[in-house]
């Protein structure tokens, strides 16, 4: 009887798949990031709080929520309540005081050149996020929306519609990936707060960016320099 030939299995990764299994620019992918303190340097709700004269109270709650010490939805409701009575013109003033994080626009442009999609998922507000998304050329965005009294053109102190929670962020990343035929291995999630951890954990590459200590400890990868082009260091392989 002739011997049965050995079956040699080729475990060599495909040419366009890095051996470490992380996403690569050589294939289309999806990057999703947080907005406040990630895409931009500031926390928008803190800036709104300053305009309302309650900046320190709001900043204290923001810090605890970002570190995972408070339920995000409850913390957001408490902070937004302090904004009651602010005129809607405040969004123009706050937007002019915001700054894209160093390297943010370069990162987005480079990803687009390689056929990637880029979206943001924010616990902040459409009234600001939509303007940032247009300026940065983003493909997708979700955020909260503040309720407005149409008669007085002032904020009511409430959020209009469902709040963008950590689960909403995760579902958005998965939906956008599916819509573009991008598998999980080609997704990147970047954020700085506890609300970002589920999408950071689920992405092919999850990065805590200049994050709170609890988030840094839980994330698989960290960047501690405020330069978003450092994300490309993981992808150019």
UniProtKB/TrEMBL annotation:
Pathway listed: Amino-acid biosynthesis; L-serine biosynthesis; L-serine from 3-phospho-D-glycerate: step 3/3
Enzyme class (EC, first level): hydrolase
Keywords noted in UniProt: Amino-acid biosynthesis, Hydrolase, Magnesium, Metal-binding, Serine biosynthesis
Catalytic activity: O-phospho-D-serine + H2O = D-serine + phosphate; O-phospho-L-serine + H2O = L-serine + phosphate
Gene Ontology CC, one term: cytoplasm
Superkingdom, taxonomy of origin: Bacteria
Enzyme Commission number, as recorded: 3.1.3.3
Biased composition (Low complexity): 9-21
Catalytic machinery residues: 34, 36
Region (Disordered): 1-21
SUPFAM superfamilies named among the record's database cross-references: HAD-like (SSF56784)
GO biological process: L-serine biosynthetic process
Any GO MF annotation of the entry: magnesium ion binding
CDD domains for this protein: HAD_PSP
Classification via Gene3D superfamilies: HAD superfamily/HAD-like
A Pfam entry, by short name: HAD
Cofactor: Mg(2+)
PANTHER family cross-referenced by the UniProt entry: PHOSPHOSERINE PHOSPHATASE
Family per record: Belongs to the HAD-like hydrolase superfamily. SerB family.
Protein name: phosphoserine phosphatase
Organism: Bifidobacterium choerinum
Record lineage: Bacteria, Bacillati, Actinomycetota, Actinomycetes, Bifidobacteriales
């Amino acid at each position: 009887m002739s011997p049965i030939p050995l079956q040699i299995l080729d475990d060599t990764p495909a040419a366009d798949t890095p051996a470490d299994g992380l996403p690569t620019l050589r294939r289309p992918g999806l990057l999703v990031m947080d907005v406040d303190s990630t895409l931009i340097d500031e926390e928008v709700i803190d800036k709104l709080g300053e305009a309302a004269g309650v900046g320190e109270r709001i900043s204290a709650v923001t810090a605890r929520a970002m570190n995972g010490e408070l339920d995000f939805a409850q913390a957001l409701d408490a902070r937004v309540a302090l904004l009651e009575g602010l005129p809607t013109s405040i969004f123009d003033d706050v937007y002019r005081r915001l700054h894209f994080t160093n390297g943010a626009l370069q990162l987005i442009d480079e990803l687009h050149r390689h056929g990637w999609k880029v979206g943001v998922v924010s616990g902040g507000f459409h009234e600001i996020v939509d303007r940032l998304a247009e300026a940065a050329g983003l493909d997708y965005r979700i955020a909260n929306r503040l309720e407005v009294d149409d008669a007085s053109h002032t904020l009511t102190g409430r959020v209009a519609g469902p709040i963008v929670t950590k689960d909403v962020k995760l579902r958005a990343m998965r939906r956008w990936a599916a819509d573009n035929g991008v598998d999980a291995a080609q997704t990147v999630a970047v954020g700085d707060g506890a609300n970002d951890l589920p999408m950071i954990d689920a992405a092919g590459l999850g990065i805590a960016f200049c994050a709170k200590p609890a988030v840094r400890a839980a994330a698989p990868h960290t960047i501690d320099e405020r330069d978003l082009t450092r994300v490309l260091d993981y992808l150019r392989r």
